[in-house]
Amino acid sequence: MTHYYNYKLSALRLKRCYDIAPPRVQKYLKAEVDHVLQKIGSNNIVLELGCGYGRVLSQIASKAAIVLGIDNAYSNLILAKKVLKRFSNCFLLTIDAANLTFRSQMFDLVICIQNGISAFHIDKIRLIAESIRVTKANGYVIFSSYSDKFWEDRLKWFQIQSKYGLIGEIDYEKTQNEIIVCKDGFTATTIGPEEFLSLTSNFHIEPKIVEVDNSSLFCEIKIPQNNNN
Predict the structure, then answer these.
(1) What percentage of the chain carries pLDDT values higher than 90?
(2) Please, what is the angle between helix 23-37 and helix 151-163, to 10°?
(3) What is the pLDDT of residue 7?
(4) What is the pLDDT of residues 132-188, one digit of tens each?
(5) Over the chain, what is the mean pLDDT?
(6) How does 101-113 read in b/e, with b if 16+ C-beta sit within 10 Å?
(7) Is 32 among the domain residues?
(8) Degrees (nearest 5) of the Cα angle 16, 213, 182?
(9) Hey, what long-range contacts does 31-38 have (CB within 8 A, 24 or more apart)?
């Protein structure tokens, strides 16, 4: 499914998904970013995994010292470069989030929001391990997914995206239990609290699960001093 975001749902088409989001979804998007911004200090170096066209980076760059955004869709980064042209502290790279080329303990904060942990369709354990590896002691790794309370609004948003031809026709026989399935093969899943805890159970950390706005579910990992992952 990675190719879907590389070709069909990238750059201006991806931006369009956010532009047509209804008011409740816009509220969710703002609440999610606002929650992340609270974690950022003015001297922080921040990495965003799956930065897309720069929607979130533009807000992070206003608070952090240095911001790096990575994405494996080059077309996203071309658009992000235009969106972020006024920020001299923001850098963009084409890198696989599960195989980061950065040195260990480089970032104060690593974020993977907007359900990236599911949307990337890559090895989740590897994604978490790499995120922890590149984060400094006492820094944070933050993942987000959807709250189950947001299901109806999330489904309506995807229905709008389908109506505009941004994603395929929704297969309602297979769409249920927090999973949205389209007839062209596109699938959107989520991560619940129990799965977050299961995925992080082997990393000798104590993740904090936080629900925000009855819409976002965050898994927040503070990196211990003796981090050897």
Answers:
(1) 93
(2) 120
(3) 74
(4) 999 999 999 999 999 999 999 999 999 999 999 999 999 999 999 999 999 999 999
(5) 95
(6) ebeeebbbbbbbb
(7) yes
(8) 40
(9) 31/212, 31/213, 31/215, 31/216, 32/113, 32/114, 32/144, 32/212, 32/213, 32/215, 32/216, 33/59, 33/113, 35/210, 35/212, 35/216, 35/218, 36/60, 36/111, 36/113, 36/142, 37/63
> What pLDDT digit, counting tens, does each position of 62-75 carry?
999 999 999 999 99
Pairwise CA distance, residues 78 & 122, whole Å: 23
What's the number of domains the chain is made of? 1
Residue with tokens 């992070």: 60
d(CA 64, CA 34): 14
CA 98 to chain centroid: 13
Residue 179 forms part of a structural domain: no
Domain containing 200 — which CATH number?
A: 3.40.50.150
Q: Considering the domain boundaries, does residue 29 fall inside one?
A: yes
Q: Which residues contact 115 (CB under 8 A, 6 or more apart)?
A: 144, 145, 146, 188, 190, 191
| pTM, full prediction | 0.96
- Domain annotation covers residue 213: yes
Angle CA 25–28–33, to nearest 5: 130
Strands 66-70 and 45-49: parallel
**Structural domain boundaries, residue 99:** 2-150+190-222
